Amino acid sequence: MAGIEAVPVALTIAGSDSGGGAGIQADLRTFSFHRVHGTSALTCVTAQNTLGVNRVDALPPEAVTAQIQAVVEDIGVGAAKTGMLLNQPIMAAVADALQALKIHQLVVDPVMVSRSGAQLIDDDAIATLRQSLVPLATVLTPNRYEAQILSGFEIHTLEDMQAAAQAIYQQGSKAVLVKGGGMAGDLRGVDVWFDGQQPIILKTETVETINTHGTGCTLSAAIAANLALGFTGLEAVERAKHYVTQALHHALSLGSGQGPVGHFYPLLS
């Protein structure tokens, strides 16, 4: 039987989540939901579950580069996303590979600071991300705390989010989406989009659930999938936000901690 022709392809460059809620596992499920063929380049392997991360092992930078090359040189990539790059050598290797292989549609999820404010990578890695990876981004998706680091000032209000998005945009990405998941009160779930024009406020309904593991990975993967499908940056973001909201409505209560969103929510109804 003949295969389906011209299937869009997306690439995730991220870590593995053994619990299946975030990382490449979430990314590949998100790609599949959008009918996009998912490919991957692992940066690290984690031992984690719904209660937290117990261990992280980094892959050699050369191994990460080889995975990206293998995919791009044979299959091709319509859009890519980066997630947890873990350290400075991996960060630099990924930036070099993306530039050399001319991947033009790239979603960069900085994964520098958790939504609770804990720094996840060292200062050298942050500097490399800012200098080498941010300028390659079609869409950059920092959360509140990541936006504070990249912009250099505190974020407490909607006006702060807008100012941060504009300041970060000046560092070279084509568009910035400052996410409001870590904001308080009415700003929770309010995101700010800026692509050099006027800032655009994007708001979806707030879903009350503790099972939100992997939302950041899922959002950036959904943006990449929609870019691969041919949507513009803003259209891709709007569609991705709708998808994440629906997945949160069908979040999975697994384990004893924070469960994942329901990536295949139509099959769960």
Rg calc: 17 Å
> In percent terms, what proportion of residues is strand?
15-25%
User: Could you list the spans in which at least 5 consecutive residues all have pLDDT below 50?
Assistant: none
Order of helical and strand elements:
EHEEHEHEHEHHEEEHH
Strand order of the largest sheet: 3-2-1-4-5-6
Structural class: alpha/beta
Total helical elements:
8
Major sheet characteristics: 6 strands, mixed
Overall mean pLDDT: 93
Ends apart, CA distance between termini: 32 Å
What is the number of strand segments? 9
Query: Given the C-alpha coordinates, what overall shape results?
Result: globular
Helicity, in percent? 25-40%
Question: Can you walk me through this structure?
Answer:
- The structure is a single chain.
- The protein has 269 residues and is of the alpha/beta class.
- 37% of the residues lie in helices and 19% in strands.
- The chain contains eight helices and nine strands.
- It has a six-stranded mixed β-sheet. Strands 7-8-9 form a three-stranded antiparallel β-sheet, sandwiched between helices.
- The protein is globular.
